[in-house]
């Protein structure tokens, strides 16, 4: 998330009432999660396990809960609760704004685009040309939709990221200030849910086709010309490269990459990154050759046990 204009380190520290290490006028351009940070961004870290990763990331401002040596060319914001203060900044720069109409006056809708009855189109939404948005679709604020896109009934674009911190009194939600971006020539089936990024974009790239009842988590990127069948669940921060095929009821864990032209068979459970150009199945998912060897070995277990039993009898 880039700020509408540059801020100084001192200004940001004042907004969240924190101490800081660095020049008063050190420039701050935005805020992002660690997997998408750039120079000028704030990243937050609140666990010693991830201090080094945050301090050595591309971010130049680190919101941290301990006074540490500041890397050269960077700045620190010292907070007793970085998670809370990251949320404060989201509320400042991307606050929730209630709507009072089904289609926001700030929405931009292209030529020859059809919006069926009972749709909700939020603030600052952009929808391109020759699109069809079927009934009861909800498109939350800031979503971007390209040309020649079809979205079927009951789909929701832009719900909050499923991202929580466990507090003694319950779960605290990390606020979502990112977007959903749907590129040209994408089809999205009925009753799908595509969550917005926390600070960046959840993106469906050009030409991909998504079946009914698919869940796409925050900040996930689905490449070009992918096919995703019904009831697939994709967690946050997943990268699915171009021309991947994912069949029904596959579950994919967060933060992994599925390589180009991979094929994942139905009901697979994907718990690690997978190379492109191969076919996978099973739980945990593995390529066909490895999985069939594994199954063949398992089927031999009764035979092996019987041989061991006979050997014991003959001893």
TrEMBL record:
Keyword Lipid biosynthesis on entry: yes
Highest taxon listed in the record's lineage: Bacteria
Residues annotated as domain UDP-3-O-[3-hydroxymyristoyl] glucosamine N-acyltransferase non-repeat region: 26-91
InterPro entries the record matches: Hexapep (IPR001451), LpxD (IPR007691), Trimer_LpxA-like_sf (IPR011004), UDP_GlcNAc_AcTrfase_non-rep (IPR020573)
Gene Ontology MF term list: UDP-3-O-[(3R)-3-hydroxyacyl]-glucosamine N-acyltransferase activity
Keywords tagged on the record: Acyltransferase, Lipid A biosynthesis, Lipid biosynthesis, Lipid metabolism, Repeat, Transferase
UniProt enzyme class: transferase
EC number per UniProt: 2.3.1.191
Pfam families membership: Hexapep, Hexapep_2, LpxD
NCBIfam families, sorted: PRK00892.1
Protein name: UDP-3-O-(3-hydroxymyristoyl)glucosamine N-acyltransferase
